[in-house]
Amino acid sequence: MAGGRVYNGGSGGGGSSPLSVLFQNQKGSCASQPLDSLFLSGSSPSFLGSRSMVSFEDARVGNGSNRPFFGSYDHEDNGDDDLDDYFHQPEKKRRLTADQVQFLEKSFEVDNKLEPERKSQLAKDLGLQPRQVAIWFQNRRARWKTKQLEKDFDALQASYDSLKAEYDNLLKEKNELKAEVVLLTDKLLLREKEGGSFELSDANNLSQEPLQKQGSESACEVEASKVSIVSCKQEDISSAKSDIFDSDSPHYTDGVHSSLLEPDDSSHAFEPDQSDLSQDEEDNFMSKSLLPPFIFPKLEDVDYSDPSESSCNFGFPVEDHAFWSWSY
DNA sequence: TTGTGTTTTATTGCCTCC
DNA sequence: GGAGGCAATAAAACACAA
């Protein structure tokens, strides 16, 4: 016996029926069905007693020579000698019979906690020591917890996989859009060189005056236009934005916006950014870029929760799509 | 039959609650 | 301080392939 711990070996509970004890804490109203059938399958539980180490003597006394006491745990040859040897062998672990386990399982389903009265009654009904019943419940709770942890793990794994796939898709989309930006910017610069520069003040006239019609200007004038664009203040952007969105032509405001193609650190939750643009390349690109910052919000600024705003919209209302239909 | 991995029963020590 | 729960672990019982 364990040192220090005194186990309740008493038989407990007097005349209450097994079911009344079993279901004293029952929450459902119809849960007695399985146990009823279990009990009613015979005049008395055929698994009374056990070969468990602790209850061995008790069971022998309590059941006399009642062979069914051994349940399904049969010896091939149960001669008297064997039986005698069996009873005199040193105490060993005995597995509970299938019926005993089934009964305990049903009881566990009703309530996985064991009150003293219920424990005593179960022990009495099963021919086990109350301690054995307590141990069985203890181990059963441990198994249940393990199973529960496995379930939780599987659920979390599935959730992770889903989020990972979503993240990968967004990353791919982001890179595709980056490539598109590069392409469009190249076209823009080419067009700028061909068609000359313009300043923000010209933007309002852009729709009426296509760039092609602007006369060719020197390269130095092109650079000058960039400077004027860069120096454009943020308040100009907001006012220009409304104008721009009324126009189907591209407009330039604060062309240098580091957030445009900057790798988003917050998007590294799963793995490093696989962007093919290095930071230097991107900075270089951005220094040349004349694109307004509100066109390219950071990825984390885009609210994907709204189905009406796909990542392709960059968080802009759908009605602003016309802005993207640049024609060259 | 035997070696090995898994499951089940039981012990031990620590912790919490009343 | 005792009772009981839990985690860790031991050890017997069991399953199964070679």
From TrEMBL:
DNA-binding region ranges: 89-148
Compartmental location: Nucleus
Record's keyword annotation contains Transcription regulation: yes
An annotated Gene Ontology molecular function: sequence-specific DNA binding
Feature: compositional bias, Gly residues: 1-16
PROSITE patterns: HOMEOBOX_1, HOMEOBOX_2
UniProt domain Homeobox: residue ranges: 87-147
GO biological process, one term: positive regulation of DNA-templated transcription
A Gene Ontology term for the protein's cellular component: nucleus
Coiled coil: 146-187
SUPFAM superfamilies the UniProt entry points to: Homeodomain-like
Main location: nucleus
Annotated spans, Disordered: 1-22, 255-283
Key words, A-Z: Coiled coil, DNA-binding, Homeobox, Nucleus, Transcription, Transcription regulation
Domain of life where this protein originates: Eukaryota
Role, per record: Transcription factor.
Family as reported in the entry's similarity comment: Belongs to the HD-ZIP homeobox family. Class I subfamily.
Designated name of the protein: Homeobox-leucine zipper protein
Species classification: Eukaryota, Viridiplantae, Streptophyta, Embryophyta, Tracheophyta
